[in-house]
Design a protein that fits this description.
By secondary structure, the chain is an alpha+beta fold. It is 39% helix and 25% strand. The protein has ten helices and ten strands.
């Protein structure tokens, strides 16, 4: 969990401006810190240099865009993240160990390697099957208390248990548990996934770790099944439904809204909410 609020603030700035030219000086100034002090604090909190973090996110978010938007050229995707055609190709291959063209050729197939269960392959349903389970909804804004993590999704269960126990006094009948995810674990190293775990609170909450998650139009896929099957189900939505849906994912990030959790039975009912335009 991030303990330094300024590092979390810096990450907000970075993810909101990822398709801009972001310098270390820009981020440090946004946090009202000197460049050199900020670099030390950021590296201590995340284990990455600020430059390396920005570059990694650009490479990974550009790969997600390539996966989700079939009709956008590789050159245009590279330009979106500040690269010329040749520079983007070499930077992408250095980071992902595959060329952009080969990456695009191999995504959106009916199966994919499973990053959490190495001996298993994730297999997907047809577009029509996913389409029958997805609704387009307008969601309200959510005011939440939250904690931010940079790590492995396999730690989610432990992190949620600690988070809910710590904040049990704020639970109400209408309280929602929400995970906001920034990365795709089929693209990002599983130990470097960025995510927020959140709990809705009253708008008058005096707590410090409060933010508003922007609502709007979302494609909502309802999942009712076992926790180990979440990756396969959600990757099917991103690999099969999203690129063929006629929608594009916008600049907001995805949400998992938990409706029911039975940790003993490893069963969960949840909504995968993809922001679309």
């Amino acid at each position: 969990m991030f303990k330094n609020e300024l590092v979390s603030k810096a990450i907000d700035y970075i993810v909101e401006n990822l398709n801009e030219e972001i310098s270390i000086e820009d981020v440090a100034a946004y946090c009202h810190l000197s460049k050199y002090y900020f670099c030390r604090v950021f590296k201590s909190e995340t284990g990455e240099s600020i430059y390396g973090f920005i570059k990694r996110l650009k490479m990974e978010q550009s790969a997600i865009e390539m996966k989700l938007i079939k009709n956008k050229s590789i050159t245009d995707i590279g330009v979106t993240y500040g690269y010329s055609s040749s520079n983007y190709s070499s930077a992408f291959k250095k980071h992902h160990h595959v060329s952009p063209a080969a990456f695009r050729k191999n995504v959106n197939m009916n199966s994919a390697p499973h990053p959490f269960i190495l001996e298993k392959k994730a297999t997907f349903q047809s577009f029509d099957e996913y389409n029958q389970q997805i609704q387009i909804k307008d969601l309200d804004n959510f005011k939440v208390i939250y904690e931010r993590y940079l790590g492995n999704y396999l730690d989610l269960g432990k992190n949620w248990s600690e988070f809910t126990e710590k904040n049990q006094n704020y639970f109400r009948e209408e309280t929602l548990l929400i995970e906001r995810f920034f990365d795709d674990p089929s693209i990002t190293n599983v130990g470097q996934c960025l995510y927020d775990i959140c709990m809705t609170v009253d708008t008058t909450s005096p707590l410090e770790n409060v933010m508003t998650i922007q609502g709007g139009k979302f494609a909502v896929y309802s999942f009712d099944g076992l926790i180990p099957d979440i990756f396969e189900a959600f990757q099917g939505v991103f690999n099969i439904w999203m690129p063929n849906s006629g929608y594009e994912m916008d600049e907001r990030y995805g949400l998992n809204i938990y409706r029911k959790i039975d940790r003993d039975e490893q069963h969960v009912v949840m909504d995968l909410c993809i922001p679309v335009k």
